[in-house]
Design brief:
The protein has 14 helices and 16 strands. With 396 residues, the protein is α/β, with parallel strands linked by helices. Bound molecules: NADP nicotinamide-adenine-dinucleotide phosphate and magnesium ion.
């Protein structure tokens, strides 16, 4: 059998700990036997980030910008403990934070749905993808403790003068917060959401609290509506999908009663809170995928989970671990499918489809990793990561 060719490379960002072990196994067992992998390799493992003073992370972002497609392994975000464990020169920032800042994208998180694995909300038979606006609001807020009696004001000093509004006349102690957002950031978020929903042919929901926040949240609502009317309406109609705005409270209630199958765009705080609720309701963090979609048309795929440190320490002691490689595998299939689409390489795109189907069929036929056993309806066999990948290769 001749291997599938890749016309253009993708950026390959390696990572840390257990996911670094899975990364190698995935390539050896289910990718390299079938595809002539064409990647530009960047080692984002913590030792290499330390050796290069984190330059490697910037080079990787640059490569994604240039090549249009990237796939990333989970990486350690160092804390005090890691400083000693890895004898680091300094406490490097989160690689995902650096990549997002350089590529200015929106993160979409969606679960892998496997028939026969329980979801805590049985009505959710299709994925719900959460898109969180990752700029501003309470995450960039300025706060103040009010010591006592006094007047709090909102003051804007512009080129054409000063605007002020009274926030509150305090008669005693209290608290204050000032937050902001930028119109260009809201527009680029809205565009990423409209594009992603079109790309995946799913309805798009957006929700906010515009009834209470008549300027701030209303600006978000108005921006989405304006871009929809001027740029997306006819493309959505042609694709048979809809854009739908509703109040956040109503969206939460509808979501629980829905069957899934839509993209839900949210403001920063709403997305932070609800993405954790939605991923745990779907059953397992190990089945959650994540993609960064950039306004420049670049895509970076990864698993939503971390480096699975506890399993790695067991691996280092020589134990075989039953770590779930699904989300990391789907990061690869996502990237290969996108490369195939961008290059008009139907063989590569259909390989990604077949590999995903083989992985899902492996679980359906009863071969699982430890974390999935608890969610499984009926009898199943728990195997280690390597045997699980070999079973997938067999099906493929
Ligand atoms: P984590 O690696 O996601 O693991 C948390 C727990 O979830 C694991 O101990 C394991 O539970 C379970 N789990 C996660 N993925 C699994 C999988 N594929 N298969 C089976 N079980 C899985 O989160 P963490 O322990 O908070 O963070 C570890 C490191 O990852 C940290 O250094 C953090 O900085 C980094 N991190 C990176 C990213 C990223 O690069 N995107 C994201 C988050 C965290 P059991 O131990 O109970 O089996
Ligand atoms: Mg959160």
């Amino acid at each position: 059998m001749s291997k599938i060719k890749m016309l253009n490379p993708i950026a390959e960002l390696d990572g840390d700990e257990m996911t670094r072990i899975l990364w190698k196994q995935i390539k050896e067992i289910v990718l390299e036997p079938f595809v002539d992998l064409n990647t530009e390799y960047y080692d984002l493992g913590l030792r290499e980030r330390d050796r290069t003073d984190d330059e490697i992370t910037k080079q990787a972002a640059e490569a994604i910008r240039r090549l249009g497609v990237g796939v990333k392994c989970a990486t350690i975000t160092p804390n005090a403990g890691r400083m000693t464990e890895y004898d680091l020169k300094r406490m490097y920032p989160s690689p995902n934070g650096t990549l997002r800042a350089m590529l200015d994208g929106t993160v979409f998180r969606s679960p892998i749905i496997v028939p026969g694995l329980k979801s805590y909300i049985p009505g959710w038979v299709k994925p719900i993808t959460v898109a969180r606006h990752a700029y501003g609001d309470v995450y960039k807020a300025v706060e103040m403790a009010v010591p006592g009696k006094g007047k709090a004001e909102l003051v804007f000093t512009g080129e054409d003068g000063v605007q002020r509004k009274t926030i509150y006349e305090f008669s005693g102690k209290g608290i204050l917060q000032g937050m902001h957002n930028r119109l260009d950031s809201i527009e680029s978020f809205a565009r990423s959401c409209f594009e992603y929903a079109l790309d995946t042919r799913q309805d798009l929901w957006f929700s906010s609290k515009d009834t209470i926040s008549k300027i701030y949240d209303e600006t978000f609502r108005e921006t989405f509506q304006r871009l929809y009317d001027s740029e997306y309406k006819s493309r959505y109609e042609a694709a048979g999908i809809t854009y739908f705005y509703t109040l956040i409270d109503d969206a939460v209630a509808r979501c629980v009663k829905s069957q899934g199958g839509f993209v839900w765009a949210m403001k920063n705080y709403d997305g932070d809170v609800l993405s954790d609720m939605i991923s745990s309701a779907f059953g397992s963090l190990a089945l959650m995928t994540s993609v960064l979609v950039c306004p420049g048309g670049q895509y970076e795929y990864e698993a939503a989970h971390g480096t699975v440190t506890r399993h790695y320490y067991r691996y280092l002691k020589g134990e075989k671990t039953s770590t779930n490689p699904m989300a990391t595998l789907f990061a690869w299939t996502g990237a290969l499918r996108k490369r195939g689409e961008k290059d008009g390489n139907a063989d590569l795109a259909s390989f990604a489809d077949r590999l995903e189907k083989a992985a899902i069929d492996t679980i359906v036929s009863g071969t699982v990793t430890g974390d999935m056993a608890a969610l499984y309806n009926g009898a199943c066999t728990v195997v280690d990561s390597e045997s699980f990948l070999k079973a997938i290769a067999e099906k493929l």
